[in-house]
């Protein structure tokens, strides 16, 4: 990744900013509750953060710190290997999970390398994104490491806790959304953003919205994640908070909530001095789930704003654009707007 390869260059309007305005920080929410009134307060903070930002951070989240440190160590060891070694567990159009260093976001290459692994190994998925094709297949993990499995299970617990709090914040019962995750496609990504000689031209991950329900992200102390502020479209840095998790809502929650909450655009800036690591857990429904605005949240005045769609097909469609440069934009939730 040494030379200035034009494949990495962002269009001028999407290049990272060199100067940031002083901005109000993304809310930090303390999840440790000891009473019903504490829970109510947390639910209200989460609801407000979901409406205002689509992003928040959580502390006292219950994921053991030593496990997080262990997976960070394993991740660094993995990326320290030669490209030849890493390519032994490469993912491609047939193998959905594994290593890759050539992913694209919106047809521009990202300055990053990734390693993906499933929470549930194996996981059932549609064989293709074509709606007529009913064939299913299984996704499986490569390079299984015990610590990866343990970490994913702990973050899954946090994801359910957040799902329940979000559900309450929408005025629903705590477990209203849980059944959609019975055979979930959730996976963890180990992101490495190497130092970049032209950080003013490239991005670690180009602007995008996460397609799933929720993302539970651990970042190191380098910084680089930027969120598009809903009020004015400014890019705001998410300053690292030690041991916190960053939570953002994905397209599925936007649709379920019928736009009460939105999946907000974000991107990752890189830098020329230090590499950065981050670990998102993408909390994704089961492949057969039909995503549509929840019946409880629509009525005659507030009619459904989205057509229903099949989650597995949506995911398969997104995956198919990760490596190939397409002549068209890849699938976006706005394509399902009524
Ligand atoms: O590395 C980060 O901070 C965010 C990564 C991200 O947005 C993603 O992988 O979807
Ligand atoms: Fe993302």
From TrEMBL:
Coiled coil: none annotated. Keywords: Iron, Metal-binding, Oxidoreductase. Pfam families: 2OG-FeII_Oxy, DIOX_N. Residues 184-285 form the Fe2OG dioxygenase domain. The keyword Metal-binding applies. Belongs to the iron/ascorbate-dependent oxidoreductase family. This is 2OG-FeII_Oxy domain-containing protein/DIOX_N domain-containing protein. The keyword Mitochondrion does not apply. One of its GO terms (molecular function) is oxidoreductase activity. It comes from the Eukaryota. It comes from Cephalotus follicularis.
């Amino acid at each position: 990744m040494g030379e200035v390869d034009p494949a990495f260059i962002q269009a001028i309007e999407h290049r990272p900013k060199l100067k940031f305005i002083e901005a109000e920080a993304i809310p930090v929410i303390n999840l440790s509750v000891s009473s019903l009134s504490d829970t109510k307060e947390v639910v209200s903070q989460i609801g407000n953060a979901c409406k205002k930002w689509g992003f928040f951070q959580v502390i006292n989240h219950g994921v053991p710190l030593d496990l997080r440190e262990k997976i960070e160590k394993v991740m660094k060891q993995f990326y320290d290997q030669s490209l030849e070694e890493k390519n032994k567990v490469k993912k491609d159009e047939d193998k959905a999970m594994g290593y890759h260093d050539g992913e694209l976001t919106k047809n521009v290459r990202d300055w990053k390398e990734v390693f993906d692994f499933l929470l549930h190994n194996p996981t059932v998925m549609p064989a293709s994104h074509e709606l007529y094709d009913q064939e299913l297949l299984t996704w499986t993990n490569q390079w299984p490491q015990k610590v990866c499995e343990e970490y994913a299970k702990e973050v899954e617990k946090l994801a359910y806790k957040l799902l329940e709090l979000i559900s309450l914040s929408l005025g629903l019962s705590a477990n209203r959304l849980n059944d959609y995750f019975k055979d979930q496609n959730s996976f963890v990504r180990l992101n490495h953003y190497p130092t970049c000689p032209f950080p003013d031209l490239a991005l670690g991950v180009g602007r995008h919205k996460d397609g799933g329900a929720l993302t539970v992200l651990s970042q190191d102390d380098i910084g680089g994640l930027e969120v598009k502020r809903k009020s004015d479209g400014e890019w705001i840095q998410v300053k690292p908070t030690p041991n916190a998790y960053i939570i953002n809502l994905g397209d599925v929650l936007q649709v379920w909530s019928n736009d009460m909450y939105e999946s907000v655009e974000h991107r990752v800036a890189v830098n020329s001095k230090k590499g950065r690591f981050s670990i998102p857990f993408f909390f994704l429904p089961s492949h057969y789930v039909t995503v549509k605005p929840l019946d409880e949240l629509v009525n005659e005045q507030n009619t459904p704003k989205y057509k229903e769609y099949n989650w597995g097909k949506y995911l398969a469609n997104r995956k198919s654009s990760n490596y190939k440069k397409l002549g068209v934009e890849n699938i976006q939730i706005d394509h399902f707007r009524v």
